[in-house]
Amino acid sequence: QVQLVESGGGVVQPGRSLRLSCAASTVTLTSFALSWVRQAPGRGLEWVATVSGDGKNKYYTDSVKGRFTVSRDNSDTTVNLQMNGLRPEDTAVYYCAKVKAGRRFTPFDSWGQGTLVSVSS
Amino acid sequence: YEVTQPPTMSVAPGQTTRIPCGGDNIEVKSVNWYQQRPGQAPILIISNDSDRPSGVPDRFSGSNSGNTATLTISRVEAGDEADYFCQLWDPGSDHVIFGGGTKLTVL
After folding, report:
1. What percent of chain B has pLDDT over 90?
2. What is the rounded distance in angstroms from the CA atom of residue A48 to the CA atom of residue B85?
């Protein structure tokens, strides 16, 4: 099973930016679609974004479209989530999740342990 | 596209429980199920309606018919106490959809 490690979370004021990263510790992420999922305190899972295996296609939930950008780095070792214009309702644990090989969107067969993003003044 | 789950369910140890995930004609979609224990990341326990990943006990099974997908847990154990989420991809919007989750309590 692929081990995923997220980083970049923290406390940020409303309107500011934060960049999350997701790295695989055992294999490269080449050809796997990767997704970001968030979970607000005491709430359920919410899909945030997905980037295709080749990095060409990106998909976002409506509430983050235009504010968040998902990308893969050129070496394909890291997937990033650039979050701009953060709002208090973006406060959540953000998980990186790998899509099963050969699939475009689901299922997510590996998950990171999550990184906490807190948006507060 | 929306899917609905009961927020809470309870079951006695050794019994069988069935967690529903409702959606319009959900049987034509491929449904996945995740287990999330407190303080932990989710893990995939059922994919493609009824496929069980390696390492998942055969006490866990899935089905999908009509407007309801179902996660069945047989011979429930105390360690099965967790939140369970159904998930699918909606091709109409290219969005990934999660159910609201069901908190399973083992009495």
Report:
1. 100
2. 16
Mean pLDDT of the residues in chain A: 93
> In a 3-state reduction of DSSP, which class is residue B27?
helix
Q: How far apart are CA A60 and CA B93, in angstroms?
A: 10
Amino acid A24: pLDDT: 84
What does the alpha-carbon distance between residue B81 and residue B10 come to, in Å, rounded to a whole number?
9
Whether residue A22 contacts residue A2, with contact meaning beta carbons closer than 8 Å, is answered with no
| Cβ separation A106–B85 shorter than 8 A | no
Cβ-based neighbours of B33, under 8 Å, separated by 6 or more: B21, B44, B45, B46, B47, B60, B62, B71, B84, B85, B86, B87
Residue B38 CA to residue B67 CA, distance in Å, equals 29
Distance from CA of B98 to the nearest CA of A (A): 6
Is the bond preceding A107 in cis, omega lying within 30 degrees of 0? yes
| pLDDT tens digit sequence for B27-44 | 999 999 999 999 999 999
Chain B residues closer than 8 Å to A102 by CB: none
Beta bridge partners of A19: A82
The answer to whether the CB atoms of A47 and B94 lie below 8 A apart is: no
- Given a contact cutoff of 8 angstroms between Cβ atoms, the answer to whether A34 and A99 are in contact is yes
Smallest Cα distance from B75 to chain A, Å: 25
